[in-house]
Amino acid sequence: MSDYSPTAQDVKALRERTGAGMMDCKKALVESGGDVDQAIEILRKKQGKRIEDRGERVASEGTIQTYIHSNAKVGVLVEVNCETDFVARNDDFIAFARDIALHIAAANPQFVSEDQVDPAAKERETKVFEEQAADKPENIRPKIVEGQLRKWFEEVVLLSQKHVNEDKYEGKTIKQIQNEVAAKTGENVSIRRFARFAVGS
């Protein structure tokens, strides 16, 4: 038995690639000592054809959904991708895309994911947080800045935001909801892009 203990991030990443349950992914990672490819093989042996490596598969199908707020002053277009036309026409997949459009209208994110954040904007925010932490002990400043940056990502990055409909989604982030749809459909699911329009802005 390996001493290796996978991080929540490692488990999530494997779940995204295979669609297997969280506990199964954790056990497979422990058994493989953190070797992802070996973990996928372990899951395949245990769960058969239900497990497939989605990592290399391209999400080139999908849907474009819209949301227009009741006052007709805010509107959103969102493109959500999957791998097959079959899933693109699936009711759950379309409902997910519509819920994302509604969320974007309300939460006004600036970017889809963290890697799309403008480096200049990130640097600007980091400097502000560093200045704010200047009076704190030097050894804890980086942690404070990191925490503030994480909060900022939750404000501006779509995948890091909690869905505005908390009753329905129980405080889950858009990324978590996207992963659940991917696991349910057995395909790569990704929010590719969005446009939010507000009258007068």
From TrEMBL:
Keywords, sorted A to Z? Cytoplasm, Elongation factor, Protein biosynthesis
What are the Translation elongation factor EFTs/EF1B dimerisation domain coordinates in residue numbering?
Answer: 22-200
Q: Where is this region: Involved in Mg(2+) ion dislocation from EF-Tu?
A: 84-87
Q: Where does it live in the cell?
A: Cytoplasm
Q: Name one GO molecular function term.
A: translation elongation factor activity
Q: GO CC annotation: what is one? A: cytoplasm
Family annotation (Pfam families):
EF_TS (PF00889)
Q: Which Gene3D superfamilies match?
A: 1.10.286.20, DNA helicase RuvA subunit, C-terminal domain, Elongation factor Ts, dimerisation domain
Q: Which family does it belong to?
A: Belongs to the EF-Ts family.
Described function: Associates with the EF-Tu.GDP complex and induces the exchange of GDP to GTP. It remains bound to the aminoacyl-tRNA.EF-Tu.GTP complex up to the GTP hydrolysis stage on the ribosome.
Question: Which protein, by its recorded name, is this?
Answer: Elongation factor Ts
Record lineage: Bacteria, Bacillati, Actinomycetota, Thermoleophilia, Solirubrobacterales
